Amino acid sequence: MNTPRQLTWNGWHVPFIAPWSRETPRAGTIVRAPQGTGIAYADELAAADRRNGTLWVRFPALRGAGKPNLAGVHPLRQRQAMSHLLCQVCAKSTYDDAFSRRGGRHLFLVRADKGQAIREGETTATPPICDPCATESVRACPELRKGYTAALVERPQPWGVAGTLYDPRTLRPMPAPNTRDGLTFVSYEDPQLPWTLAARDVVTLLGCTTVDLDRLLAHGATA
Ligand SMILES: [Zn+2]
User: Fold this and answer.
1) How many of the other CB atoms lie within 10 Å of CB of 43?
2) CA 58 to ligand 1 centroid distance, Å
3) What pTM does this model have?
């Protein structure tokens, strides 16, 4: 896979997974799936609209068009980054030198209140990050400046999706209080999966070691 060109805005690298202002979601008409269980698009395109049987939001791919929304997430690029464990910022593979040097572990960096560590088995929709991008992100990203936690992860494994649940009776989106970004995390085993319009690929982090990011990046080595 060719690594996409790194785009910049006001001197900072724009994360690969950030949406641009001309990338606005295209709402499709949600209907009951022909086989009766779950949702479908009225004009569904089998190859483009589903992944592993789950319906996904429709989002155009116009990376670089307009202005970047640095706090947002483009669902399909997030999925691409998560599925292939690409750095969420520069889109290079995180199976890199640092991965080898650290005994086959990926760096995950997530927004967190002070003192909160990434727990073993925690689910996340935040793709991994490479060392140079982590160094820049903790300086540049306003969200991360509020607090973050980092972990080296041996096995980020597919877990499910985050998305909007639809009421099987009314086919309307269900309210999602107390959720992250208004999205409900739904595992691949969950019977609600067919009623979910997915917007993020979610992994579970196995083999987690919390790390002091500053020390890790300063030494660049094994942690
Ligand atoms: Zn990177």
Assistant:
1) 9
2) 26
3) 0.92
